[in-house]
Design goal:
Blueprint lengths: L1 E7 L2 E6 L11
Antiparallel strand pairs: 1-2
Length: 27
């Protein structure tokens, strides 16, 4: 999945990140 990632002031990138998963029943 593609997402905006913040690496610092004025440093925003579009990168591939893992898909989110449900880890706990109340997520």
């Amino acid at each position: 999945m593609r997402a905006l990632t913040y690496h610092g002031a004025r440093d925003v990138r579009v990168e591939s990140v893992p898909d989110p998963v449900i880890q706990e029943p109340d997520d």
